[in-house]
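Repro:
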Amino acid sequence: MPVLNSIADMADTLKTWRRHLHQHPELGLECHETAAFIVKQLDSFGISEVHTGIATSGVVAIIEGRAPGRTIGLRADMDALPMDDLSGTAHASKVPGVAHTCGHDGHTTMLLGAAKYLAETRNFAGKVALIFQPAEEGEGGGRIMVEEGVMERFGIDEVFGIHNMPGGEEGHIHTAPGPLMAGVDTFYIDVQGVGGHGAMPYQAKDPVMPAVAIVQALQTIVSRNINALDQLVITVTQIHADGGTNIIPDTARIVGTLRYFDKDVQAIARARMAEIVEFTPKSFGQSATLTYEEGYPPTVNHPSQAAFAAEVARTVVGAERVDAHCEPIMAAEDFSYMLQARPGAYLFLGQGDTPVCHHPKYDFNDAIAPIGASFFATLIERALPLDTAK
């Protein structure tokens, strides 16, 4: 079964929806206009059970099949990023400093397309919970939805999601059992020195020197403290020292992220980071403090659900376009919280040779929306077949 005919026929409609969403991006938990647009479409499909205000602006809609059965959750994220849209398209963002540069407008569109099809056909036994989630980009809307009891409230048994993949061949689907995306933590290191004149550094305690030493020492965690077969990335993304061309500052700040798949690796890295931050500045007669914030946990697919999702993908795009054992990536995703709460799987859908996610020139490829919508719809019909309903 390739892309469903009725979904292929709505390709222009999907494009219209997606480009409307792209022009009206919203940030974090405050996706109220996006939610209103979604509710309007769901109402037009004849979906009567729609719940709003979850995790501030999230939406959950329920479609009942033709017979009783389990409930499968399908999730799409709605929020954009705080950056300018430099795509140069006619449908570029109309909101200065806010842009859909990760494709969440496309994810929402794909789920709306599946919702329209499923509401019209209802060729399944059980229920579909359509989960439109705000605040994937940093605030953890997925975590908030889980903490607010979305799984229990709607009796969700399994949950699935999909993300576009720039650089992946258009229409190809990738997934894997087990870890698919990394956990991500953020660290802040503040070095306390004594400022002074750049011409007389011996009269000061220059915090830039221990800051540089700390940055170098952090890289030894991966190379000397972690098994080479394990996966860990420590990236320093910022170094701040508010001096002048001839002024030694009082303080320096280091900011970065740590990405991992295994909790034991995370624990070792965090402990070594604390030791480096404590003892390295002492050799310079200074001190430093570490602020360590745990972020999204690893996104870990459940093996049975990942295998099932891959089989569904084969029926939609063909076996030759499905990689069921792809390499995990070090990016993070708050769908991880939903997979901690319920069995399920996450997948990537290739969108061709485009700018990467979070690039100001990124734009979702509208050609893959019917594929994603067909995947969601086919998954429901395969997971909740009428002929085995009891």
